[in-house]
Amino acid sequence: MIVYVDLVFLTNLAVDGTVLLATAKARRLRPARLRVAGAAVLGAAYAAALFWADVPYLYSLGAKLFVSVLMLLLAYGYGSPLIFVRNFGVFYAVNFATLGGVIGLSTLLRSAGSPWSGMTFTPQGGVVLDWRMQLGLFAVTFALSLWLFIGASEGRKKQADTDALLWTAEIRIDGESWEVPALLDTGNRLYDPISRIPVMILEASVWRDKLPDGWCERLQGESADRLVTELGDSEGDGGFPWLGRLRFVPYRGVNGGTRMMLALKPDSVSLSREGHSPLLIQRLLIGLDGGTLSPDGAYRAILHPDMIASGAARPAPSQPA
Questions:
Q1: What pLDDT is recorded for position 235?
Q2: So where's the catalytic machinery, residue-wise (predicted)?
Q3: Is the pTM value of this prediction over 0.70?
């Protein structure tokens, strides 16, 4: 077999540099490009030296770990023992994930007459796999594996960030209650302009059985005042029982124009989540949204930050047994 050391060096240079950048992305680091390039050169030189120099110790586990440590120190620095251990773990996680993806994808794409082809059994009972791949196929499978790893990592991070802001909101009106998952949105600055009461947003479909027929759909395209004018004037005549709780809240739409949001004054809203004391909020409005706030259904309400801030919430009373 003929091995071109320069090709080995360049291939490992590209792979090591990509893995180092993927590790930095996963760890949310911003290393200098020159440091990453230097670490990649170190890794590529070590890989080429395995074919060029006949030194047994270069193949040992200790030597490989030592070179990995040098690469990480050169690329990201030390920081602290905990930071370095995390960088080290993510670095090898990226390596294992991409290498496993390369082998898996190449096996999937390669056709063979028998599952036993490419396998050799040693006298000691071991199995030797004959795994060969062209450079172009390696580049494609490596890129796909890295893309899958980064996509999965970013998906987990986004889900973790969302979970950190999720609360359970229990809305109480006239002795009835509705419990919905709610997302704390620090960018929500919607207030009633007169009373300066904060406004949380709720999917109108939560109250589909309480709102007049068709409101959940009409709220998306029709003005709030038009819907209210169609309501009855009294409860006795079959009017809307929450008529006295309705409010109009002006807000600015995505096109820059001012619109009216239909809101409702609840008796109270209780917020709870693991690791936090329950909170009871009574001074707020609930704006009705005719659409879906979360495509995956992770939350059905958006909380105002003032609902969590001190002064806007107080510990909820314990429920009687």
A1: 45
A2: 185
A3: no
